[in-house]
Design a protein that fits this description.
The protein is an alpha/beta fold. The chain has three domains: 3-100 and 202-263, Adenylosuccinate Synthetase, subunit A, domain 1 (Adenylosuccinate Synthetase, Chain A, domain 1), CATH 3.40.440; 105-197, Adenylosuccinate Synthetase, subunit A, domain 2, CATH 1.10.300.10; 266-427, Adenylosuccinate Synthetase, subunit A, domain 3 (Adenylosuccinate Synthetase, Chain A, domain 3). 32% of the residues lie in helices and 21% in strands. It contains twelve helices and 20 strands. The protein has helices at 16-23, 76-88, 109-122, 134-142, 155-175, 183-197, 204-213, 245-252, 285-291, 316-326, 365-370, 396-409, and strands at residues 3-8, 29-32, 41-45, 48-52, 65-68, 73-74, 98-101, 105-106, 201-202, 218-221, 259-267, 270-272, 310-312, 314-315, 330-334, 344-353, 356-358, 372-379, 413-417, 425-427. Strands 9-7-5-2-10-1-11-15-19-20 form a ten-stranded mixed beta sheet, sandwiched between helices. Strands 14, 16, 17 and 18 form a four-stranded mixed beta sheet that branches. A two-stranded antiparallel ribbon has the order 3-4. A hairpin with a 2-residue loop joins strand 16 and strand 17. The protein starts with a strand and ends with a strand. Bound molecules: guanosine-5'-diphosphate, 6-O-phosphoryl inosine monophosphate and magnesium ion. The site of 6-O-phosphoryl inosine monophosphate (IMO) has 24 residues, from helix 4.
């Protein structure tokens, strides 16, 4: 009864959406286990670009049942909007296609206002969050005063809970001289959304375990990335959830014994959006070239916020760490096509910190800021590789680059992607 976990192995935006869409072909259930609509997963199907924030990418495969797991924080209003947007593109969403865990926590208008207030209060030390209310929602969850999706069943009680959450937030906002929320106006769309979502509510852990027992194949679709993990990332410049493989188990209520594959999605270079250390960041023409101008939908501008992403060479120190933390059984490299046309390519193979070479990222940001990448230079290739489908179609230098990444991370790479379209995948074995 195999489950596959798909995690982001860097700072998010590795191309998890398109890899999930590929893995979903052989899945019966696709489940999101953490995060909320801070995620932005882009999937290109035919001539349509889907940008999924809360709904798993598996929704684009007809045979797949999608699950929003207990580990998520869900904005019900935005979820309904997203359902409508996807339905407008011809994907019908019914409770036969999507389930929402009664145990998932809800993002309220209070959380969104508090996210902005918290960022403002941090000033120059701001995290650069997506302002979706993620941090405050998880704070209420662990503070044991959150509102859960199951609470949407009784609309009167739900309205009262929202009212209390907004009142409490308004006191904080008033102290910071920030405009307070109009509770009634904020609550109305939540009640509409709750009524729409009631039929989708279920105990998804019971559902998943029943399906697994009956032999269903489950894909756990990660959001964010390992280096944004609240435990394992560059704290405090992280998100408030556990995007790593361990998070899939608690975030869905399944045991480790059902997992037989952990896929780490990694971009062939590094990107990060938001603040925090990024050792291989390039503030030069190479960084600009990796980013792209923004004209193509796959250029490096945030799917959720539109912010330009910080870009740099591949960081194998971080990737090796991510492969270890997640117990990756394989890595998938995405956007290899973007590396075509560079004379030479660099990979950070270690950091130099206070005169010593280290193979894993140090714990503190002060150390990470001081760490200097030790680069290895590899020959580039000039060929357009977007039409490659088998290893033999790739230039020797590209195959060499992939081999080197696998060696440096001690993890095999069987698949790389060379474009955003469904079939733009190279199978190396
Ligand atoms: P996610 O958050 O991990 O799902 O990644 P995003 O969707 O935020 O960002 C990845 C972007 O790269 C999307 O626009 C994808 O369509 C695009 N993409 C994914 N794989 C490839 C690839 O192999 N080549 C190119 N050029 N674009 C890709
Ligand atoms: P996907 O699933 C990239 C980043 C934000 C910020 C930090 C905290 O598309 O890979 P938050 O709003 O979560 O409190 O912000 O985390 N971040 C992401 N960066 N991709 C994501 O999701 C992200 N989700 C959050 O930019 O630095
Ligand atoms: Mg994204």
């Amino acid at each position: 009864m195999p489950a596959t976990i798909l995690v982001g192995a860097q700072w998010g935006d590795e191309g998890k959406g398109r890899i999930a869409d590929w893995l979903a072909m052989d899945s019966d259930v696709v489940a999101r286990y953490g995060g909320g609509d801070n995620a932005g997963h882009t999937v290109y199907v035919g001539q349509q670009v889907f940008k999924l924030h809360t709904i798993p990418s598996g929704i684009l495969r007809e045979q797949v049942m999608c699950v929003l797991g207990n580990g998520m924080v869900v904005n019900p209003v935005n979820l309904v909007k997203e359902m409508d947007q996807i339905q407008a593109k011809g994907v019908i969403i019914t409770p036969e296609r999507l389930l929402l865990s009664t145990r998932a926590h809800l993002i309220t208008p209070a959380h969104i206002a508090l996210d902005a207030a918290s960022e403002k209060a941090r000033g120059a030390g701001a995290i650069g969050t997506t302002l979706r209310g993620i941090g405050p929602a998880y704070l209420d969850k662990t503070g044991r005063k959150g509102i859960r999706a199951g609470d949407m069943v009784n609309l009167e009680d739900f309205a009262d809970a929202l009212q209390r959450s907004i009142q409490e937030a308004n006191e904080v906002l008033a102290r910071q001289d920030i405009k307070v929320l109009d509770a009634d106006a904020a609550i109305a769309p939540y009640l509409d959304a709750a009524a729409r979502l009631q039929p989708f509510l279920a105990d998804t852990a019971v559902y998943l375990n029943r399906r697994l027992k009956a032999g269903a194949r489950v894909l756990c679709e990660g959001a964010q990335g390992t280096l944004l993990d609240v435990d394992h990332g560059s704290y405090p410049f992280v998100t408030s959830s556990s995007p790593t493989a361990g998070g899939a188990l608690t975030g869905l209520g399944i045991g480790p014994g059902v997992v037989d594959r952990v896929v780490g999605a990694a971009k062939s270079f590094s990107t990060r959006v938001g603040a925090g250390p990024m050792p291989t960041e390039l503030n030069d023409a190479i960084g600009d070239r990796l980013r792209g101008t923004g004209e193509r939908f796959w250029d490096e501008y945030g799917t959720t916020t539109g912010r330009p992403r910080r870009c740099g060479w591949l960081d194998a120190v971080m990737l090796r760490y991510a492969a270890q933390i997640n117990g990756c059984t394989e890595l998938v490299l995405t956007k290899l096509d973007i590396l075509s046309g560079f004379d030479e390519l660099k990979i950070a193979v270690a950091y130099r910190l206070d005169g010593q070479e280290i193979a894993y990222p140090p714990t503190t940001n002060a150390e990470l800021e001081r760490a200097e990448p030790v680069y290895e230079t590899l020959p580039g290739w000039s060929e357009d590789i977007s039409g490659a489908r088998r290893g033999a179609d790739l230039p020797e230098a590209a195959r060499n680059y992939i081999r080197r990444v696998a060696d440096l991370c001690g993890t095999p790479v069987y698949t790389v992607s060379v474009g955003p379209e469904r079939d733009q995948l190279v199978h190396l074995t």
